From TrEMBL:
One Pfam short name: Acetyltransf_6
Protein name stated in the entry: GNAT family N-acetyltransferase
Domain BioF2-like acetyltransferase span(s) in chain numbering: 158-287
Organism: Erythrobacter fulvus
Amino acid sequence: MIEARYHDSVNVLQALTGDMAGAPFDRAEWYALLASTGLTPLIAIASDADDTAALALTERDGQITPLRNWYSFTWRQLAPEGAAGDRLLEAIARQLKSRGHRVTLEPVPGEDGSADRLARAFRAAGWRVAVEPCDINHILEVGGRSFAEYWESRPGALRTTLKRKAKKVETQVLTRFDPAVWAEYESIYAASWKPAEDQPAMLRAFAQSEGAAGRLRLGVARAGGQAVAAQCWTVENGVAYIHKLAHLESHKPLSAGTTLSAALFAHVIDIDKVALVDFGTGNQSYKADWMEAVRPRFRIDCLDMGQPKAWAPLGKRMLRSLRP
């Protein structure tokens, strides 16, 4: 017997995510940070005698979406592998019809089978499902190389920039949270070309918790004692995640961002011995200089045709499919 239920607190994920958290964005602590920003959780859970699966969601006006924000590289199901987990996901998908007419899940990874699993579960539960790419993820597979070996394969212009500019700034990589350095990061970000932070308090709390767990890699570059570039990375399960980076436009000729990135790459490759570096989502051209592969991220749009509110979105979807 499978039981499906809902919760409005992320605390129920605490026991579930411990064994399944393969990335920062899978942990109960991450969802708690999201809830602290004002998002209202809809935690859909299904369990039987032996297994439990969950989807961390939120809902508004009958439309259900992932519990996430722009800091989240990915969103995926929290479910055991195999047939047992698939049955639980299907039970959740079927039960969600009682909460809304549309479920849109993104950005879902494909390389681990998540996109296929979720689409299959919702189709089996009777939803009309469309799957399409919605973003890309730049990555570097280290392949056992040292930083020196990796660096030899970088574009000539990038290597020349570092050779010419590296001595103009001093870099520091911290593996703990430092309030003074974080304040420098926030000051740099505020003065950079980047858009305003959506939830700066959440990001700071995340950095603090990652620092306490030993996963934070906080980098800063200084010129003449002034912080001119800063970056926030984390390392977990053999993967380095590049969360945030910024530099002062007023000091752009120093190429401090390039020098700091090289220092962090060297740290995670030679000291942390990571197997993968993940540059998050987005197709910014500079990412290709550092990364060597691209993975798609998917949007899974599910409509319940038993509810009239789903008919108009289906019509729009069909019209889009007819365009050349």
